[in-house]
Design brief:
- There is one protein chain.
- The protein has a 5-stranded antiparallel sheet with strand order 3-4-7-5-6.
- The protein has 2 domains: about 40 residues, no CATH class; about 90 residues, Alpha-Beta Plaits, CATH 3.30.70.
- It has about 130 residues and is an alpha+beta fold.
- It starts with a strand and ends with a helix.
- Helix content is about 30%, strand content about 35%.
C-alpha cells in the first residue's frame, strides 16, 4: 500500500517522513510556484515545471510563424525549445463557452503553423536565462 500525505509546513513534512510516509505533497506551494512561473514567462498560457532545468509550456504561435512549416523555423537553435505538439482551435461555439480544440499529435517538419495555434514546447531553462 502506498500512502501519500499533504504537508502544511516543513516541520509537518519532517514528522510525516519520520513516521514512514515518504510521499509528501505541497499543493499550495506547488500552485504558487506554477503561478509564479506563468507570470514570469508572460508568453506562456500554461506551464509545467519538470525539474530545475526543464519545463513544458503552452505558448501562442508567433505571427511570423503563420503559414510556415516547422522545419523552416529552426525552433531548437533559435529559441532553445523543442516542439512537442500543436493544439488547434477548431471552432468557437460562443463567447460564454469554451472553444473546441484539437491536439495534432506528433508534428513533422512539414506541419504548417497558423496564427491561432498553441505550441506545446519543451524548454531547457538554462538556455533561456
Amino acid at each position: 500500500m502506498r500512502i501519500i500525505s499533504r504537508s502544511h509546513s516543513n516541520i509537518h513534512e519532517a514528522i510525516l517522513e519520520t513516521i514512514g510516509i515518504p510521499d509528501v505533497v505541497h499543493p499550495e506551494q506547488d500552485a504558487a510556484f506554477r503561478l509564479t512561473k506563468i507570470i514570469s514567462f508572460n508568453y506562456a498560457l500554461d506551464y509545467c515545471h519538470m525539474d530545475n532545468k526543464h519545463s513544458i509550456a503552452e505558448v501562442v504561435s508567433l505571427m511570423i510563424f503563420n503559414g510556415r512549416p516547422i522545419k523552416e523555423l529552426d525552433l531548437t537553435k533559435k529559441y532553445a525549445v523543442s516542439l512537442v505538439t500543436i493544439i488547434c482551435e477548431l471552432e468557437k461555439i460562443s463567447i460564454t463557452k469554451d472553444e473546441k480544440k484539437e491536439v495534432k499529435g506528433l508534428v513533422t517538419g512539414e506541419t504548417i503553423l497558423q496564427n491561432s495555434d498553441i505550441l506545446v514546447c519543451f524548454l531547457e531553462l538554462i538556455k533561456l536565462s
